[in-house]
Design goal:
It is elongated and about 70 Å long. Helices cover about 40% and strands about 30% of the residues. It contains three helices and eight strands; from the N terminus they run βααβββββαββ.
Amino acid sequence: MNLPITKKGYETLQAELTRLKREDRPKNIQDITEAREHGDLKENAEYKAAKEQQQFISTRMAELEHRLGSAQIVEITAGESTTVVFGVTVDLLNMETEEEKQYTLVGQDEADLKNGSISVQSPIGRALIGHHVGDIVEVHRPAGVIEYEIQSICFKESS
């Protein structure tokens, strides 16, 4: 299954994997070696912590390798769009509160609500895909339904 991701998102995941392989894992191996030198492993908290960190690093590396292997890079270029698709930035108006929101639709690994990036697989992302400026979109979520009007759709170059 190909998972959409921006070039920037792919590079971020690749950089994390490289850091884990070149920095974190070698340091962890050194931590385990040093902890072993302290004697009794059954009651050695440093050793247990280092082994737990080793498991975390291994799991995260495998996860990143899988995600990078199944990633499909989607190139984003600046400009207008008539339809909500992966990579666009959408200006929305909450029909009830008249609050304005702006979201950029990105891959699951890139989503960061604080910075206005939401996953295309999120409830809002799924509801918006395929719609146009002026459409009223219903977003179903556990707290209830929210209606948004799409104000604008554009591609913004990522920095």
